[in-house]
Recover the amino acids of this structure.
């Protein structure tokens, strides 16, 4: 029996099969240990637990492929050399693909952890928006770089691609120029994404005015930004646009805003009662934050005067509602108590001189 087992072990196919089986068994043991470690770290180390959870799917492929690759390299070759090399190359490509997948999933796990640590659904979320914007943009950029590195590593395993690379280096001037023109949009967006992550002219949930449209930054990807317009439309803007064009950011340092309400009234309107009514409306409005409540005459026209009411709010959404509330309240107050002071156009009748009758110019004998 032992002699038969020894004879079986000396056979190349048998040794190769046993080596592969042991490698797969070792991969299964490592996968089980990783699963147990994830369960133990679930409460004390949520980052590692989440990362292991996100890495579970690629690890299902990575560990067996790694074990098979090592086993085929150390086991004796059994079979045609061409088939052996093709199998090793196929395993290497699959291993690099699984490693790239694992890197992208780990970056995504870090992004999700940051989103849980810094929620946006709080009153003062300036720091959360700053951190999440950096994490989101840098995470997308890192994912693109990992994918590019993985794709380059896979392509470099192909002999034809290596020869193509050598020929391109030989004609580096023309090829580099063509490659630069072809990759300009991609590289431009990549650099713009890094600038946005570091300088942060925009952040997630920022209120911006772009091309006359009011909206909030909903998503920042590696190539474009999605702006949610107030009427639930979506405006998709390339990343380069925010670097090359001016735009309004209403929440750059703070969400607090000062809103304006304009009224045209007759010159007979007394201002003190109107200022008292404005104070009363502001104090009764839940949108007012208590900072600014001012009424001023900003223009004196030919027929009426223009009044401007300045009121402050905690953010732009409350500011819009507050402006509408103040405008409606002031108009109702003027209609009720001072209807004669609404704008009107004055006309003054002018008496024309009466023309002399024909009899006044007639001779005395004809009268």
């Amino acid at each position: 029996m032992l002699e038969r087992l020894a004879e079986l072990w000396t056979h190349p196919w048998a040794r190769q099969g046993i080596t592969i089986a042991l490698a797969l068994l070792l991969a299964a043991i490592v996968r089980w240990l990783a699963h147990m470690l994830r369960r133990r770290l679930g409460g004390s180390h949520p980052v590692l637990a989440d990362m292991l959870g996100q890495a579970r799917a690629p690890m299902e492929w990575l560990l067996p492929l790694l074990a098979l690759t090592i086993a085929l390299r150390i086991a004796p070759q059994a079979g045609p050399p061409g088939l052996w090399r093709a199998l090793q190359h196929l395993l290497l490509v699959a291993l690099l693909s699984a490693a790239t997948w694992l890197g992208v999933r780990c970056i995504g796990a870090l992004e999700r952890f940051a989103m849980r640590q810094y929620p946006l659904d709080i009153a003062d979320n300036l720091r959360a928006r700053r951190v999440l914007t950096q994490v989101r943009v840098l995470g997308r950029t890192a994912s693109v770089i990992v994918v590019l590195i993985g794709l380059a590593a896979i392509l470099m395993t192909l002999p034809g691609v290596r020869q193509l690379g050598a020929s391109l280096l030989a004609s580096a001037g023309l090829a580099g120029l063509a490659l630069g023109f072809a990759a300009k949009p991609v590289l431009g967006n990549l650099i713009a994404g890094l600038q946005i992550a570091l300088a942060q002219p925009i952040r997630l949930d920022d209120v911006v005015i772009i091309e006359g449209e009011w909206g909030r930054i909903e998503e920042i990807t590696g190539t474009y930004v999605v702006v949610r317009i107030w009427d639930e439309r979506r405006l998709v803007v390339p990343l380069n646009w925010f670097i090359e064009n001016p735009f309004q950011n209403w929440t750059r340092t703070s969400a607090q805003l000062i809103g304006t309400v304009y009224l045209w009234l007759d010159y007979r309107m007394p201002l003190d009662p109107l200022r008292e009514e404005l104070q009363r409306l502001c104090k009764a409005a839940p949108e007012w934050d208590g900072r600014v409540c001012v009424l001023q005459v900003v223009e004196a026209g030919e027929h009426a005067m223009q009044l401007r009411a300045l009121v402050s709010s905690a953010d732009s959404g409350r500011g819009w509602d507050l402006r509408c509330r103040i405008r409606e309240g002031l108009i109702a107050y003027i209609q009720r108590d001072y209807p004669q002071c609404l704008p009107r156009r004055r006309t003054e009748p002018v008496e024309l001189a009466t023309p002399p009758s024909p009899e006044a110019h007639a001779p005395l004998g004809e009268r």
